[in-house]
Amino acid sequence: MTARVTRSRSRNIANLSHAPTQPTKSALASQNVAASNISALPDSLYATATGLDSKNQKLLLAKQNRLTDRNGQIPRFIRDRLTQPANDHSHALANAASSTLVFAQQEAGTAVCVSPSGLLLTCSHCVAESEDVLDLAKDQWLLFADGRVVKARCVGYDGRRDLALLQIVAAQTSRQLDPTTANTTEMSGFPAIALTETPPRRNTSLFCIGHPGSEDFEVDTPGVATGYDVLHISEGRYRGLAVGQDVQDNSEIGALKHDCWTYWGHSGAPLINDEGLLVGLHSSWDDSTGMRRGVAWEAVKAFIDEYARKRE
């Protein structure tokens, strides 16, 4: 089984209000935006503002340019659904895409915003390979699907569940697509999605919104470009939980099974149902079967519940 291949390969090249005790599906997503605690980042980001080395600074700007390309898959996916009737879940799916982020480092993974106050959920291995090397003071640079850059800090980490929470501490001005013109307009808060109230049923339709790697690691010659989008949406189904595996233990390989297409860099990608709600995160795959694996709803809910209780 491929347990930590995505993580180790990406690590080697990535040198870069009050919640209830038992949160409902919207407990995090309904928190007020703490704007006073989030600093503004300039529209034009230079290395002096990010502190990134020249390689990762160029990579951040390159990803930003590609994410803001109106002909990219994500902008088209959002526009198409915003122009459809709101009662067919199309707007919720557009919001889910808008709520997804990529790490600025090369192949370093994906995250999703679960609160308009800027709380981001991802896999723990996208932040640090283990708690021993976790640096809570380290700045994490990410980009929303619309291309705007945010700086975040880790506020929750669970290596066993393979989950981490980041809090945005600085951000560029938030924007949203105008479906009639494909231009951007100002919006308040951060786009966010909620966890479903119950775990998904087997064979539930899923969307996976993730960051496929730009380099093909499966060829002998290094540096071969894949040509994939910075963010890619794939469709598949929830295939249940691995038999005999503790659903709360994803330290070796994720307990959730799904068959959405993924590639290097998809770790932390949200798995979304057709109502635009979160059911889990992609984390790895079983290379003996090709089945994609992830962090299941049960582990995500337990992790978020524990975080909410700590904030009481």
Q: Any overview of this molecule?
A:
InterPro entries: Peptidase_S1_PA (IPR009003), Peptidase_S1_PA_chymotrypsin (IPR043504), Peptidase_S1C (IPR001940). Belongs to the peptidase S1C family. Pfam families: Trypsin_2. This is Pro-apoptotic serine protease NMA111. Nuclear serine protease which mediates apoptosis. With 312 residues, this protein is α+β, with helices and mostly antiparallel strands. It folds into 2 domains: 23-193, Thrombin, subunit H, CATH 2.40.10.10; 205-307, Trypsin-like serine proteases (Thrombin, subunit H). 19% of the residues lie in helices and 26% in strands. The protein is built from 6 helices and 15 strands. The protein has helices at 5-13, 47-50, 54-67, 73-82, 90-98, 297-310; strands spanning 39-40, 100-103, 110-115, 119-122, 140-144, 149-158, 163-171, 175-177, 184-186, 205-210, 232-241, 256-258, 270-272, 278-285, 292-296. The strands form 3 sheets. The chain has a 6-stranded antiparallel beta barrel. Strands 10-11-12-15-14-13 form a 6-stranded antiparallel β-barrel. A hairpin with a 6-residue loop joins strand 2 and strand 3 (110-115). Helix 4 (73-82) runs antiparallel to helix 5 (90-98). It starts with a helix and ends with a helix.
Short description:
The chain is built from six helices and 15 strands. It has 312 residues and is an alpha+beta fold. It has two domains: 23-193, Thrombin, subunit H (Beta Barrel), CATH 2.40.10; 205-307, Beta Barrel (Thrombin, subunit H), CATH 2.40.10.
